[in-house]
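Hey all, quick one. A colleague (J.T.) asked me to put the zinc ion job into the tracker so the inputs and the structure tokens live in one place instead of scattered across chat threads. No bug as far as I know, just bookkeeping. Sequence used:
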Amino acid sequence: MSDRIIKCLAYNGRISVTCIESTNICEEARKTHNLSPVCTAAFGRLLTMTALIGCEMKSNTNKLTIQVKGNGPIGTMITSSNNTPYVKGYIENPVVDLPLNEFGKLDVSGAVGTSGFINVIKDIGLKDPYVGISPIISGELAEDFANYFVNSEQTNSAVALGVLVDKNGVKNAGGYVITPMPDATNEDISNIEKYIYEAGAISRMLENNLSLEEIATKITGDKNIRILERNDKPVYKCDCSKDRMKQALVALGKEELKNILDEDGKVEMTCHFCNKKYIFDKSELEQIINS
Ligand SMILES: [Zn+2]
């Protein structure tokens, strides 16, 4: 089954809901970066959130970048997305290994850390990109992003992110964002809180083979949700190319490139997002220097 995103409205349009299944994205990230189980859970949650925010952007030239730095052993995580959404990410330490937490679960908070910042940068084609910064408050990421929505977008959204990992890799992954529209009533919100609590964890619902439409119904308690879009196909995909790598080389400057040419005769560059290697041989380097 391929990953999906659905967007819908509940309570006659007073509540907006976006749900994602991101199992393949998280498994692809696990294989690409050779992630440990706790890193799979942490990085997978972040990639899931990145797709959820990315798919809200209006144009396919818009770009979202999220940086999470919680001062835990994972170090910095950076993800990015367009509006398709194609997501990709970099993780500083992909092999963190920690004992399970007090609930017998992967200790995402221990790996991410609990002091630091989430940095959200949206380049939507304006002169300056939109930048939102919010403190990390729990390190479990869903609460941290809910807090980000309060701080930066003034919305009281409910956020859930879940990545279920077993010995073979990612068993399932997904998440949702529920956002009250300006005309939502207090009763709507307390109803939703009750249904979210009763619905339980998103990974449990996915494990029970609930569709995203069924999950949206369950977490809102509204049997007449209106599905707006169900065509988004989120994918873990890197858009690096030899040409982009070449731009990075050009940025080093002629002197530095000459030094490299004299010392090594070639350059090997690795993309941090997909680990693809690019080699520039002697003649290619000379060409860049002389151009
Ligand atoms: Zn790449």
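Adding what we noticed when we looked at it: The longest strand covers residues 169-180. DSSP finds ten helices and 13 strands in the chain.
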